[in-house]
Amino acid sequence: MATLPNPLPSLASHGLDLPSGSLVDTTIDGPWHEPLFWYANAAAAPGGFAALRAIGRPVGLLPVLIDEGPRQEPPGAWDLDPGRVSYPGDHDAEEVLLGFWEPYAADELGGTGGESEDPSSGSTASAEAPEWPGLAPSPAAAGPDDPDRLAADLADMLSSLHLDGDGTGLRPALVPARRSADIPAAIGWTGPVNHEDDVARLCAVLRSWEDRYDIRVVALGFDTLTVSVGRPPTTLPQARALAAEHYAFCPDNIDQNPPYDLDAYAEKHLLNSESWSFWWD
Could you tell me the pTM of the whole model? Predict the structure, then answer.
């Protein structure tokens, strides 16, 4: 496993001009041996995401927005578990997705509620999963915007929405990570724990999407993830191919959102969409 030195313990020595904030080392098992991320005291504001990236990137820190949600749950209450996390680079994205696709698609997409009845014998048998379509190809055309600029624009939009509300709940953070896709693993995030208890495996998928779709991790909540998409699918066939990956990555996005259909999800949420959101029950 290749990791960068964590600059957070010696943050002051780097001379970074950061707003008032604190270092977070709280995990489900008590304090971690080093800080997991820096966390601002004030709410996120437009322009802050890009500014933090410019400050943090040279020393190995990447920005993300921490969404405390409607219940104002700070990350100290998120059951962070870095000791459980492996390294994203040790996993193959397609193997991860295939491993989820087979059981989930058989139950939910098999067309028979998970079981089929043989009228000649009166017996039932488990429905077979639709065939895994493989990883979707990257859209041929690059997006019109720089992926990091697009991530900053999405962060600004989210920050503005929160400021127009009660002004709380969304705060900027800096995380020691090589690439944006690794941010959930770097902090030991457990949002998808009911789906996958080693978030590094899902980060391997995020890495693949970073390569194919120019995604950037923009916001994390207790069990939510929002990414910007610099190279979204621009045709329905592209979007439908990607929808299978989304279903394997986060079945709740389809299973718990009407009309519970991959094609409808592809057209509504993926086609030309510059942001994707995920929620795990």
Answer: 0.91
